[in-house]
Design brief:
Layout lengths: L12 H8 L1 E2 L5 E2 L8 E8 L6 E3 L4 E5 L6 E2 L10 E6 L2 E6 L6 E3 L2 E2 L2 E4 L4 E4 L3 E8 L1 H15 L7 E2 H18 L3 E8 L2 H25 L7 E4 L4 E7 L3 H16 L15 E7 L9 H17 L5 E2 L3
Parallel strand pairs: 5-6, 14-16, 18-19
Antiparallel strand pairs: 1-2, 3-4, 3-13, 5-7, 7-8, 8-11, 9-10, 9-12, 12-13, 15-17, 15-18, 16-17
């Protein structure tokens, strides 16, 4: 199954157009909301991935943090392989797969039991999913709502809300499992001058091209988000300070490796400044806000030291 940028299954555009409406004998177009088009789906209603929808295209769906699961959830309270949902013509069954924090239906722990459409399934302490029947129109609407709430419209990276929600859950996971976690704060250099020279379209093009170059250096599990106008941040799970510095240097080099075409008479050399902070540098009261503030201070240290550079712990 192909996945889109949001981590959701893609719907083939031709298939969508062919099935979205149908001619009737009275030559009236039937709405795509017709329940005849409905198919089983899981909607995440609580947790870091709230709003996400996953269509049950196969009879069996495994849920967990591992990339091998059918439905991958980022929440640290979810086990790597947490639960299994089986859908047949006779109904649906949910089964806990030995998760650490349990699977629940109606507040009761589940070993294996039938589950009806409309019922909610709790996975660990934070995640709630609901089983339902959805039409193609409902799927499309839900995906659009999810993307608009979690992603930046211009760059298609995650937005500030998603970044900080994810940072909170990842800090909790790192503390519980004693693993490392780092973030990188990023700012495009002389962005106002760039906007004044090339206009807002040129500025937008610089951000889009810069994001594309940065994504080419990151792992699939890394989270790149737009947290301000020309400000971005990267969440690096399982990575300490020195490795984060190396990652930041790759990001800096990738953006500035060659000039960008922004609509002017000549290509423009665009650079970024970066600040690195690791959760292990702070005491036990580390919070998402404190960690980001530390990375942000180091970002502006890089600005003051001449831009186009990375700053971390002394």
């Amino acid at each position: 199954m192909r996945l889109g940028e949001s981590g959701l299954p893609n719907v083939d555009e031709l298939d969508y157009e062919q099935t979205s409406t149908r001619a009737t004998d009275t030559n009236v177009t039937a709405p795509i909301s017709s329940r005849a088009n409905a198919r089983p789906a899981i909607t995440v209603v609580a947790g870091a991935d709230a709003g996400r929808v996953h269509v049950l295209a196969e009879p069996e769906c495994t849920i967990g943090r591992a990339s091998t699961c059918t439905l991958v959830l980022a929440d640290p309270g979810v086990s790597r392989v947490h639960a299994r949902l089986v859908h047949t013509q006779d109904g649906c069954t949910v089964e806990d797969l030995g998760s650490k924090n349990g699977t629940f239906v109606d507040d009761q722990p589940v070993g294996k039991r039938p589950v009806a459409f409309g019922e909610a399934i709790q996975l660990g302490p934070n995640v709630l999913v609901r089983l339902s029947m959805m039409t193609l129109a409902e799927e499309r609407m839900q995906r659009d709502l999810y993307d608009s709430s979690m992603r930046d419209a211009l760059t298609k990276t995650y937005n500030r809300r998603y970044f900080f929600d994810r940072l909170v859950t990842e800090l909790a996971f790192a503390a519980r499992h004693r693993t490392q976690l780092s973030i990188v704060a990023i700012d495009f250099d002389h962005f106002k001058v760039l906007n004044d020279t090339y206009g807002h379209k040129g500025g937008d093009a610089a951000l889009q091209q810069g994001v594309k170059r940065m994504l080419g250096t990151l792992r699939t599990e890394d989270v790149l988000a737009r947290v301000g106008g020309e400000e971005f941040a990267v969440l690096l799970r399982g990575i300490g300070h020195d490795e984060a510095l190396t990652c930041a240097e790759r990001l800096r080099a990738a953006v500035g490796e060659r000039p960008m075409l922004l609509g002017g008479d000549a290509p423009h050399n665009t650079t970024i400044s970066l600040g690195v902070a690791c959760a292990g540098e702070l005491d036990r009261t580390v919070t998402a806000e404190r960690l980001f503030e530390l990375a942000d201070r180091r970002l502006y240290e890089a600005k003051h030291r001449g831009r186009n550079r990375v700053c971390g712990a002394a």
